[in-house]
Amino acid sequence: MKALVLKGVKHFEIEDIQKPTPKDNEVLIDAKYAGICGTDNALYNGLPGSAPAVPPIVLGHEVSGVVESTGKNVKGFKKGDRVTVDPNCYCGKCRYCHIGIPEMCDNLSAVGVTRNGGLEQAFTAPATNVYKVPANVPLKDAATTEPVSCALHGVKLLHTSPYQNALVIGDGFEGLLFCQILKAYGVNSVTLVGRHDDKLAEEKKATGVDAVINAKKEKIPAKYDITVDAVGLPQTQEAAVDSTVKGAQVLMFGVGKPNQHFSMNTYKVYQKELTVKGSFINPNAFVDSLALLSTGKVKVAPIVKNVLKLDQVADALSGKYTGKCVVKIDA
Fold it and tell me: Which fold has domain 2-149+282-328?
């Protein structure tokens, strides 16, 4: 079968490899779509994702497909089921798994990171990580369940309430998901920060945000109860803290470089009684994410900009395409 194999830093090759056989507790999935995201960009450039990727490896942790077969111990799935996969596999044995924060697992592994993922015609996944896709959710949309779940986990770390005014800094794909999820969780208003008027106008229509701010033209006011940094640069992280009112919550979601730091006025953190939180991957968020997609409270079709082929992935990770990319895996 055909697979896009990461052989080294910035080095992909399309190869004909053997179709895997599912182990007793695994599902074999015919891949239909795989999303491309910042984690893939990091792995392509030799940086770690949620876990280190050791070439040769097949990436693709945002996936959807159809069940081809199952291992002998698997119940609840049959050939032809439409599915998506939570890529993150927790050991269930370490301290962090035992105290209820499995995303911190000492032995974290992941489909499309430490084991072959969806940028190939078929792949296996533990049955515990496989989820059926609602009938009204297209498989192209279902391939975005993982990024939806990451944003949703971030929102679940916050205390949301109808009085709150929220700010999302960054109008990449995850930022646009945060806007929709915060609206779904009932905050009073959501403001989106970007850098291009025409793009922001389109995104306001697509996400239903209440207001937009062009950071190149306007100063962000300090009036928000929730602020989300969905960029990961020092200047956006500082802006997220500075845009708060008393008692606000700040979510650091955007991924900075491993050695990156930002400045913060610690007196203001004390004086405003701010809560500053990080958000890492997506534990226990797939059921709600699929519900958001099924009910239409999160709409991804208007914000997925490119449908690519396997031989276009390297171009996507090199910046040739703007906006969210998903790869159609042809049988």
Answer: Quinone Oxidoreductase; Chain A, domain 1 (3.90.180)
